[in-house]
Amino acid sequence: MNAFIRPGSVVRRIWGDADVVLLVFAGAAAEFALNRAVDWLFVTGRLPQDPLTRLFSTAAYAQRIVFGDRAQAARTMAQIRAAHEAVERRRGARIPAWAHRDVLYLLIDYSERAFGALHRPLAAPEQRELYAVFRRVGVGLGIPALPRDYAGWRADRERHLERDLAWSDHTAALYAAYRRDLGPWRYALLRRVQGALVPERVRLLLGLRRRRALARLLPVYATLAGRGLRPLVQRALVPAAHLGAVRRLDRAADGERTA
């Protein structure tokens, strides 16, 4: 009764599946790099120095909210607000409210896109539930001016995509860090996955190609993973230093895992 998100929610299915979460962050890594406020990610230097570790740290925070009770979710959101405030004090400026909305919005969008790529499109009630849950998170993080419903969010998301993305030197620096930490062939695979997943504006700004064949193969991977091959595939695709972190992302209960 005290769960922040009800058991059986599609949001728990999405964020309890390591493969879906990895796709969420593959898309987020592309769009983060283009955001007009991406310079905030360079204030501490931690993200460009070690982007994969920061990715898994962010995923862990998200899962504490998704799978926690109301008190734990509130504590986690307070920790996130405190981290943002510490960065603001270090820089002597405030993170723009629109930048906070951008981050929340891309997590919503890639949650839907990643689940659809690996499993199936979300039904309309699930889309509304996904947005309602993330809106609660946004309110808990103190993000202002959030749309009231999914339709309003979808329209505002398009406005943010057109207004808040641009190629910059920070984009190049982040992609160089991705290549350094992933190695050449995993980096090439990342770009192919991103090309199959991200919105058209992100794809054009990054010079990504739409890989329809790869998009068709992603559900095949999900089927193979469900037949016990996931550990072997993950071992091949994930750098060894981060394999444990990937496997800890599998948090869904048996009744919530997607077949």
Structural write-up:
The chain is mainly alpha-helical. The chain contains 13 helices and no strands. The mean pLDDT is about 90. The protein has one domain (about 10-250). It has helices spanning about 10-15, 20-35, 45-50, 50-65, 70-90, 95-120, 125-140, 150-165, 170-180, 185-195, 200-205, 210-235, 245-250.
Number of strands: 0
Overall mean confidence score, pLDDT: 89
Bin the helical content. Answer: over 70%
**Total separate domains:** 1
Tally of individual helices: 13
Work out the strand percent.
under 5%
The Rg value, from CA coordinates, equals 17 Å
**Distance N to C terminus:** 26 Å
Overall geometric form: globular
SSE layout:
Elements: H1 10-15, H2 18-34, H3 46-49, H4 51-67, H5 70-91, H6 97-118, H7 124-140, H8 150-163, H9 169-182, H10 184-197, H11 200-206, H12 212-237, H13 243-248
Helix pairs in contact: 2-6, 2-9, 2-10, 4-5, 6-7, 6-8, 9-10, 10-12
Outline:
The protein is an all-alpha fold. Helix content is 72%, strand content 0%. The protein has one domain (10-248).
Entry keywords:
259 residues; 72% helix
